Amino acid sequence: MSEQATSTPHAISVRGVSKTYKGGFQALKSVDLDIRRGEIFALLGPNGAGKTTLISIICGIVKPSHGTVTADGHDVLRDYRATRMRIGLVPQELSTDAFETVWAAVRFSRGLFGRSRNDKHIEKVLRDLSLWDKKDAKIMTLSGGMKRRVLIAKALAHEPSILFLDEPTAGVDVELRHDMWNMVRALRDTGVTVILTTHYIDEAEEMADRVGVITRGELILVEEKDVLMRKLGKKQLAISLQAPMQTLPEGLGEYALELADDGATLLYTFDVKSEDTGIAVLLRKLGDRGVDFKDLHTLESSLEDIFVNLVRGTP
Amino acid sequence: MNIPAIHAIYRFEMARTFRTLTQSIVSPVLSTSLYFVVFGAAIGSRMGDIGGTSYGAFIIPGLIMLSLLNESISNASFGIYLPKWSGTIYELLSAPVSPFEAVLGYVGAASTKSVLLGALILLTARFFVPYHIIHPIWMIAFLLLTAVTFSLFGFIIGLWADDFQKLQVIPLMVVTPLTFLGGAFYSIGMLPPFWQKAALFNPVVYLISGFRWSFYGQSDVNVVVSVGMTMVFLLLCAMAVAWIFRSGYKLRA
């Protein structure tokens, strides 16, 4: 690794990147983004938001209209050899060499990225991805999930320090999704920076250190996942009532209360950042008004709720 | 220079050839052998010599050239079109591979296949027609030069094509007619004066003429002109490929 590479704190730096395709469609609008070395970064966004375009620009497949991108301090256009050797890409589409064997396809990838032959490394990658038994099988004979693993194996064949996973678990079963999550965590533990785009919010919630939300070509938010959930998430106290109510009790207008489940549940939304949630006083006041309850539990916003609110909130 | 990448592409392409041996090698050798049987052994025995060479022997360079041109174009165009069609081109575009290295890998493999095929056809011809080669070094040089030039041309077609039909249009509608009309089966000198002059606009004439000269020392056009025209076409193809990669035409959005 060069001196420049080790001195920069970011694995990827995107500065003012815009992309307008030939037809005039603007896929990205002056995007700035820094990906920290060794983190798992989830890029969320609805279809057509610009996720794949951004990844494709960083990986050299699409040319930016404006702006610069560096990987480990190297410009992806001027110093493409240095950057591309560091980057592995698992594309969204299941694009495979159907007539090749798994082994041949993965070995080809390693060579293509300038690495000398290393059968031991390829064996390790295939074993880690539970593909070793299929190494001599033609890719066309594999299931969709197995093909996805082959794509990951190809991306890891040249030992990249930055891995892009574009919708890695699209169309794979639950078991394989969990296997992949474990694999991504294991990669991160070895120092690999992982950037993933996903439609599955639970995937980002489960794995990501930081989350970026992109919509209509604009990066509207980048935040630590936990901070984001604290900042934008809301908590609710769900009070299961002994007897259903038709209307909210009087004199409690200062509390954000609402009725749910046909009046069987009273929901109180409170600020997680506030030192005094007001729960104790509310419960006392409910008791004073003769409102009995049989159960209490809190509800927390999921990342999905936050994401939907963010995307809907943009013009 | 990314040598492992060139090697990987080359090996990958060659592996495809050996995986589809019947289609890649056996079929063109067999079909060319039929020409030798029909035009060489059967009809050729009833035809007179051309410039002191038996008709069966006369058509050997033209037939090899016919296969060489078609196979070079077909191998190279298919080699680069297939990843475009299957979507695996993303890997080449995101790899630390320069355009020159990619061309070396793909065109190198396509040329190798074509030269192998040409050599096999030449060996096969020995079973049907006696022949000799006066300038073997020049014969190999023409074989290599033509294979590389038309593999480059095929590479351009593969980059340009966006469906399988387009992949076939140029070889079937342009190259094969030009080869048939380029003196594969006759000497340009046998044509009426007007068509002799018109034939000079056919680039394949220069290839066949030069190649035939390396066999029998006789040519329709000066051999220096043949070499020059082949080099010009090679240069044009190389420039076109360089422009395609630089501009990203049909490759990078």
Automatic annotation (TrEMBL), chain A:
InterPro entries: AAA+_ATPase, ABC_transporter-like_ATP-bd, ABC_transporter-like_CS, ABC_transporter_ATP-binding, P-loop_NTPase. Keywords: ATP-binding, Nucleotide-binding, Transport. PROSITE patterns: ABC_TRANSPORTER_1 (PS00211), ABC_TRANSPORTER_2 (PS50893). The keyword ATP-binding applies. Gene3D superfamilies: P-loop containing nucleotide triphosphate hydrolases. This is ABC transporter ATP-binding protein. One of its GO terms (molecular function) is ATP binding. PANTHER family: ABC TRANSPORTER ATP-BINDING PROTEIN (PTHR42711). Residues 12-241 form the ABC transporter domain. CDD domains: ABC_DR_subfamily_A (cd03230).
TrEMBL record, chain B:
Keywords: Cell membrane, Membrane, Transmembrane, Transmembrane helix, Transport. It comes from Dyella lipolytica. It holds the Pfam family ABC2_membrane. The keyword NADP does not apply. Residues 19-248 form the ABC transmembrane type-2 domain. It is found in: Cell inner membrane; Membrane. It is a multi-pass membrane protein. This is Transport permease protein. InterPro entries: ABC-2_transport_permease, ABC2_TM, ABC2_TM_bact-type, ABC_2_transport. Belongs to the ABC-2 integral membrane protein family. The lineage of its organism: Bacteria, Pseudomonadati, Pseudomonadota, Gammaproteobacteria, Lysobacterales. PROSITE patterns: ABC_TM2. The chain crosses the membrane at residues 25-43, 55-82, 137-161, 167-186, 198-215, 221-245. The keyword Chaperone does not apply.
